[in-house]
């Protein structure tokens, strides 16, 4: 069961989204919140797996929620949602560690996929948002030493949005090995989140592979 919280200052969207995801047998909407402070209170009181959080809200915004949500004992995965093609907000949320960025106009299947992917440690970015992200990919300023065969393959799977569990299954390695590989890659590329790692590492082509 995926325990969810929906955070948005628009009551209509909260109710609509709660109804939509509530029809899924394996999703339970624990709370809908109009502010970041309300959502944080829920996180401290309940074990929440995924939070669907609006980017732009009065008072504290989605980026501040990302920062404060990490203070709880078991931080949830956060999927950012917005009504706008807001490039700055998108980059800020993803860099802060959001597990996804989708538009409120996204189809139900896309929203459901983003929720399940976030719960499993993967990432989802709306196609329109993904196309706009290309201009923000930052070339590496220093040469990256050759990665091991294992880390190179893990990196490729991360680019496909795979979770640690999926990477472990596909590569026939333990979950801890997959987790350690991701940690090494984040250190190598000086990334603070999985999504930032994907952005930064797109400028790196492993030896022997086409660019």
UniProtKB/TrEMBL annotation:
Residues modified to 4-aspartylphosphate: 54
Record keywords, A-Z: DNA-binding, Phosphoprotein
Domain Response regulatory, chain residue ranges per copy: 3-119
Short name of any one Pfam family annotated for the protein: GerE
GO molecular function terms noted in the UniProt entry: DNA binding
Keyword DNA-binding among UniProt keywords: yes
PROSITE patterns registered for this protein in UniProt: RESPONSE_REGULATORY
One annotated GO biological process: phosphorelay signal transduction system
Top-rank taxon: Bacteria
Protein's UniProt name: Response regulator transcription factor
Organism: Corynebacterium marinum
